Amino acid sequence: MHWLAIGLGAAIGACLRAWLGRFNPLHSWIPMGTLGANILGGLLIGLALVWFERMGSGTVSLNAKLFIITGFCGGLTTFSTFSVEVFNLINDGRMLAGLSLVGLHVALTLLATALGVYFFRFVL
């Protein structure tokens, strides 16, 4: 049953990621769809971690956790697409743009995760 929860969550997350992928780059080297999906996924996983923590380990089923965290957030975020985008920049001789894209993804996604955690802990 766990695989079904993960699969359904992943399908929904991947569909959202595909929809976000339609957005044009902010600059020629910043694909907003991929960056947006990773930032949104970071924010949502931060919120989910605190929500599950507050609900207590016995209250939320393992299937719900797998659906949201492993499935939905895993399907929404995309390391492979991000890797290809960075690789293409570096392969085209745009080293600074590629490394800047890495920095943007890592910094903004971690910031979004922290924002999700702290927002839920201290505001809600």
TrEMBL record:
Q: Which UniProt keywords apply?
A: Cell inner membrane, Cell membrane, Ion channel, Ion transport, Membrane, Metal-binding, Sodium, Transmembrane, Transmembrane helix, Transport
Which residue ranges traverse the bilayer? 33-52, 64-84, 96-120
A Pfam family reported for this protein in Swiss-Prot or TrEMBL: CRCB
Its membrane topology is listed as: Multi-pass membrane protein
Q: Where does Na(+) bind?
A: 74, 77
Q: Is the Transmembrane helix keyword given for this protein?
A: yes
Q: Which domain of life is it from?
A: Bacteria
> According to its UniProt record, where is this protein located?
Cell membrane
What does the record give as the reaction this protein catalyses?
fluoride(in) = fluoride(out)
Modulation of this protein's activity: Na(+) is not transported, but it plays an essential structural role and its presence is essential for fluoride channel function.
Return the similarity comment: Belongs to the fluoride channel Fluc/FEX (TC 1.A.43) family.
The record describes the protein's role as: Fluoride-specific ion channel. Important for reducing fluoride concentration in the cell, thus reducing its toxicity.
**PANTHER family with a match to the protein in the record:** FLUORIDE EXPORT PROTEIN 1-RELATED
Name by which UniProt lists this protein:
Fluoride-specific ion channel FluC
Can you name the source organism? Answer: Psychrobacter frigidicola
Write the lineage as a comma-separated list.
Bacteria, Pseudomonadati, Pseudomonadota, Gammaproteobacteria, Moraxellales
